[in-house]
Amino acid sequence: MADTILVINPNSTETVTRAMDAACEPLRMAGGPAIECVSLQEGPPGIETQFHVDSVVTPLARIVSERQHDCGAFVIACFSDPGIHSLRELARKPVLGIAECSILTALTIGEKFGVIAILQQSIARHARYIAALGVRDRLAGELPVGLGVTELVDAGKTYERMVETGKKLRDDHGADVVVMGCAGMAHYRKPLQAALGIPVVEPTQAAVAMAIGRVRLGWHLL
Question: CA-CA distance, 53 to 47, in Å (whole number)?
Answer without folding.
Answer: 6
